[in-house]
Amino acid sequence: MNRNILRQAQELQARLAKAQEELANATIEASAGGGAVTVVADGQQKIRSVKISPDVAKAEDVEMLQDLVMAAVNEALRKSQELASGRLNAITGGLKIPGLG
């Protein structure tokens, strides 16, 4: 019985490691202001790029630009968290494992 549990734990660990690798390579894009600001994040909630339209960059309203960047970043992170949660829950069956969000 113990060998079976150990084998299952090792298989779960391997599937989780693969999922983490896939999440690191996954990209999620979010934009704000009708595409004025676009943010790309990976599945591990790391921002990979921020693009700002030249038209918005020339604008004198810095506060608006800051709000657009913040909105796009928050949306990218939200989408990234949803992706990670969905992939990890599919592996663990909803079992909460410390350190996996």
Shape call:
rod-shaped
Oligomer: single chain
How many discrete domains?
1
Q: Mean pLDDT, as a whole number?
A: 87
In the sheet with the most strands, the strands line up as 1-2-3
User: Separation of termini?
Assistant: 30 Å
Task: Write the H/E string, N to C.
Answer: HEEEHH
Instruction: Describe the largest sheet.
Output: 3 strands, antiparallel
List the helices and strands and how they pair.
Layout: H1 2-25, E1 27-32, E2 37-42, E3 47-52, H2 54-58, H3 62-92
Antiparallel strand pairs: 1-2, 2-3
Helix pairs in contact: 1-3
Describe the structure.
The longest helix has 31 residues, at 62-92. The chain has helices at 2-25, 54-58, 62-92, and strands spanning 27-32, 37-42, 47-52. The model has no long low-confidence stretch (mean pLDDT 87). It is an alpha+beta fold. Strand 2 and strand 3 (47-52) form a beta hairpin. Strands 1-2-3 form a three-stranded antiparallel beta sheet. It has a single domain (2-92), classed as Nucleoid-associated protein YbaB-like domain (Ybab, Chain: A, 2-Layer Sandwich), CATH 3.30.1310. Helix 1 (2-25) packs antiparallel against helix 3 (62-92). The protein is built from three helices and three strands; from the N terminus they run αβββαα.
How is this structure best summarized?
The protein has 3 helices and 3 strands.
List keywords for this structure.
alpha+beta; 3 helices; 3 strands
